[in-house]
Input
Amino acid sequence: MGTTQEAQEPSTEEEKGGLVRFFTSDHRYVLLGTSVVALIGMWFSMQPRSSQSFLANAYALEVVMYYALMAWVVVSLVALVTKLVHWRDYAQKSPFAKPAARHVERVCSYVVWLFSAVLFVDRAIMGFVAIVKSALGSNANPQDFVGGMVYMVYKGRGIFARGIATTIELAVFGTVIAFFLALLLVFLRLQKIDRPDNDFVRFLKVIGCGFAKVYSAVVRGTPMMVQSLIIYFAGFAVLSGSGMSTNEIRAVWSTFVAGLVTISLNSTAYMMEVLRGGIEAVDPGQTEAARSLGLSQWQAMSKVVFPQGIKNSIPALSNELVINIKDSSVLSVIGVFDLMFATTTVAGIYYRQLETYIAAAVCYLILTMVASKLLSMLAKHLDAPAMGPVLSSSEVAVTTGVAGSADKTIKVEVDHSEDRVRRGGM
Output
């Protein structure tokens, strides 16, 4: 492991050095790329100033920046014409391709980026700040699009906060519950008849495997919205048949609980198939080797196959959380007060749907981006040693990473007399 980490460290330094070299090297196409940035900066300069503009009292400076950007565009056009004239020998005959000229062009490109960034902040960022400030101080819903959206989000911030919290709770708890249920179902799904099994065990394995297959087919073949309606009203009917009143039923079987059950059961089917694919990707020879050493089918699966299969499935399993954040929006059909329900509530208050739904889309985008970032960090942190191939009967030397690699070994002592497996460091 130490050798691997030492080998990876230079590559990281090389990537950082390469990034620095990219910005400090003289590129042939710096004129073409930076001219687009200059045009964008000129466009921002032509936009009206807001009340928060910090260039309002610096008109002369803005004029200088505008014409500097224009000059860069003109120089880029001249360089483009030169390139068309000297298409085959541009590097030899064009003055823009000389080493000294390329160095000057790179330094000037920094100035172009700086001027464009200043104009962007002054027009776009400070303009948005001015709109937000005006909307928050308004006594009525502004008529402009951005101002109205900010006003409705601010006035309904309590509703949106409750909806966001419910969405996060449903996605996180539903994914965690589904993971453990998927582990159980994938174990049933992969059961095979073993020679020492008696008739009762064989019957249970057949029933368990068949149930997992049917469950996966039914859940993945029906919409989640329909599933939520069936689960909610089925639970309500069962509790109603037991003699409970409507208020008592709602205290036990709330829309949140029904939504959590729906997400958990729905994600279980998909996570089961992901785990099955990761487990079946493990070399079958490892299972055969484990069984030849006297390990039972459960020991072979839990000690050798499952750790590698779960590790292979971590990226897809993590993605299920992001999917649940988005798919939880369908639960508003049964009255779950999630982000989508909160959005329709605010839209009904102000009778402005487009602004509120765009605000909801931004909230969902932020939630999924944050979840994706956290999950990628978790996946790197959980990049732990995976159980590798079984090698001997007295010691099971296991490798880390991809099956068959030899970064680090873990010694597993098999005690046949007590039919158990003890693991110890090597």
